[in-house]
Amino acid sequence: MHIHYSDSDLDKAYKAIEISYNLSKKNKNTKLLAKATYGLGYCYYLYEKDSLSEVYMDEASNYAKKVNDIETLSKALNIKGSLYNYKNQKKKALKYFHESVKYSSKDVKLSNNTADVLSNIANIYVTENDTINALRYYHDAIKIQKKNKLENSLSNTYNSLGVLYMNGNQDSALYYINNALVLGKKNKLDYQLISQYLNIGIIYLNFLDTKHYDKAKLNLIEGLRLANKFNVSRYQFQGNLYLGIYYMKAEKNNVKAKKYLDNALKLLKENKDHDYNIELYKALSTVYFNLSVYKKAFFYKNLENSLKDSIFSLEKNKQIHEIQTKFDVERKDFQINLLKLEKRNKETENLWIRFTTVVGILGLLTIGLIYKSKQKKKNLLLLQEHEVKRMQDVVKSQDDERNRIAKDLHDGVGNKLSVLKHILHQQTISNEDVEFLKNGTKSLMKEVREISHDLSISLINQKPILELFVDLLDTFQNKTNIKIEFNIYPNNALDSLKTVKKIHLYRILQEVLTNIEKHAVAKQVVITVTKNQNKLTLIIEDDGKGFNLKEAGAGIGISNIKERVELIKGQLTIDTNIGNGTTIIIELDEDGDKNSVGR
């Protein structure tokens, strides 16, 4: 994404950096030359002169490597990745982004660059419709930004997260973009505010009912005003496009709509996003049709269809190329395997020639049968030992759970009953005592109900899993004062979950939250549920003290989680280091439940 400042300020900066560049080159000061070259490349990046920017960023990278200037090198690589991303060369963009992170992650002072790059990588996954990886990188970026109070880049990441949710969850989209807007106003990030105002306007215009059209208009006008102020052609295009759609759709004013759409048409060359271009042609066709200018309506409808067809052809050619590449690789692998097979056959033939006697052959068979029998016994013994160990873990887990429930009953319910009994045995009972007895009874009923709910599978079956999750998280937050952030995309991601997986997933979340409460010393827990086709992903992140996975891997808590994930044919990933919090990722396919229900 290109960043813009006023032309006069940028021109002054460019002239000053150019003087520094010439002096550094004259004095052969490589360290200053690396920074000055990066500065010139960055100015050209802001001017949107991408070819010149790339030349200077290459030069800056070479100088920075010579003097081991990690800061300049990582920033230059990030800009190069952004340039390639803007040209839709995603593979090259990812290469430079990953290289940039490799350098900047070595120095905590470069956290801002690290977070920006992670957000840029997430943006690429968004364009590839890979929601899971996009969310993963966005949340990694947010962790760094919150930890280091990087509000400028946090505003940008919130905006990107909002855009991700725009097509499926408008409430989440508005939540994140409004958070971005608050930070943008607070820190006077005028350029970032352009995108945020436009995005909010688009949400109110396209996804909510007509009563929000006024909000759409106000936000779109403000976004376009800032885009014109800073001469940002990309956002000038978007602002004019969606204001044209607003006047066509909300006010039925086709003349005014045409004026804005014509402005967008003049900026068409500045926009490289084909989806926006299709939207423009579609809107122009509709406006001209409403104005009874049928020839032009037909013309723009043809342009819309032609662009759609060309994109489809590109995608089709891309798929054919991928299939052809896969076929070539498989054919090559087949040829290699065929050569290996021929070699093995030759070796086998030579072997049989050496052992020509019947006695030799029988001897070999006998040895093979004895070895196979021993190996089978050994494997059976290992399986039995593993099953015994698993049963011991289950029993230990159940004993621990019983002890926990007993402790809850003794420390909570038992102590409160003793207090109430003491009051009831008094000779006189005051109004204050009566009120205390009422409140105490209510508290006891709630506590007993919570323990009952924890134990009952039938209660879990009766409630939707989303409601169970929310109840569990509310109880956890009230009990521990640890802040909970819960995200789900799409909203119905959990609706089609079968009973077995529902129970196990609920118990897994219960187990993880219990471990966080006991061991993590966390201030915040972020829980994200996403669904992409038939793949459901649950991500649980905390900002606690982390742990050594090798040492804790054999513990009952981790073992219980692994056991339940295996039972529902899921995949478990645990990412943790001491001092860096913990991330637990559980991935499930909707098909293939095992007929096993745990408590």
Structure description:
The chain is α+β, with helices and mostly antiparallel strands. The chain is 75% helix and 6% strand. The chain has helices at 7-27, 30-46, 50-67, 70-86, 90-104, 111-127, 131-147, 151-165, 170-186, 190-206, 213-229, 233-249, 254-266, 274-290, 294-354, 358-424, 431-455, 457-462, 465-480, 499-520, 549-552, 556-567; strands at residues 483-489, 524-532, 535-542, 571-576, 582-589. Strands 1-2-3-5-4 form a 5-stranded mixed sheet, with helices on one face. Helix 2 packs parallel to helix 4 and helix 16 (358-424) runs antiparallel to helix 17. The radius of gyration is 32 Å and the shape is globular. Mean pLDDT is 79; it is low at 1-7, 314-332 and 592-599.
Summarize, please:
This protein is of the alpha+beta class and 599 residues long.
Per-chain topology:
Elements: H1 7-27, H2 30-46, H3 50-67, H4 70-86, H5 90-104, H6 111-127, H7 131-147, H8 151-165, H9 170-186, H10 190-206, H11 213-229, H12 233-249, H13 254-266, H14 274-290, H15 294-354, H16 358-424, H17 431-455, H18 457-462, H19 465-480, E1 483-489, H20 499-520, E2 524-532, E3 535-542, H21 549-552, H22 556-567, E4 571-576, E5 582-589
Parallel strand pairs: 1-2
Antiparallel strand pairs: 2-3, 3-5, 4-5
Helix pairs in contact: 1-2, 2-3, 2-4, 3-4, 4-5, 4-6, 5-6, 6-7, 6-8, 7-8, 8-9, 8-10, 9-10, 10-11, 10-12, 11-12, 12-13, 12-14, 13-14, 14-15, 16-17, 16-22, 19-20, 20-22
Descriptive labels:
599 residues; alpha+beta; 5-stranded mixed sheet; 22 helices; 5 strands; disordered N terminus; disordered C terminus
